[in-house]
Amino acid sequence: MLYDFLKRALDIIVSAVSLVFLSPLVLIIALAITLDSKGPIFAETPKRAGKTGKLFNIYKFRSMVENAQEILDNNPQLLEEYKKNNYKIFKDPRVTRVGKFIRKYSLDEFPQIVNILKGEMSMVGPRAYYPYELEEQSMKYPQSRKYVKIILSGKPGLTGVWQVSGRSNINFEKRVEMDAKYVERRSILYDFWIMLKTIPAVLSGRGAV
Chain-wide mean pLDDT for the chain? Predict the structure, then answer.
């Protein structure tokens, strides 16, 4: 299909060029993370659901303290807030000083360029959801199941329509509906439009947690 070919070509070109030109920023972020707190440079996160539901390891800069997932699992209060707020914690105590900055401007997502080059993700697409997030939220919002099925027919993206429309301010039900409509629309011009909208959305930091 022409769309799939052009989309893959766009992914490779844009991600490769970004990796080359932004490599100094990558080194600065990596150094800042190392100096700020103990732990690895990259985050240890549960696998995400990719195209057809295939699980993959997503690459992100570490923005939280070491063993953040273990801390969450053993803290009932944090875990309750995490699930209540669509798998987000506002003013999360696990986030480091450098982490607050890179999360606000989505710099922690930059390593996902490697996922794009590997073909696991795309520059533009639906959110890369956790499998348990899709399962639990689909039970909470049964009407969203039809959207989840559509979402999993495409690759998740580094950015997407919901990211440029409020990020964490949008609940699960609305988010999956927006993602599904994106997948159904399938347009290179639409992808370009979303990428352009991503720049002011990231700079504003709106909806970031």
Answer: 90
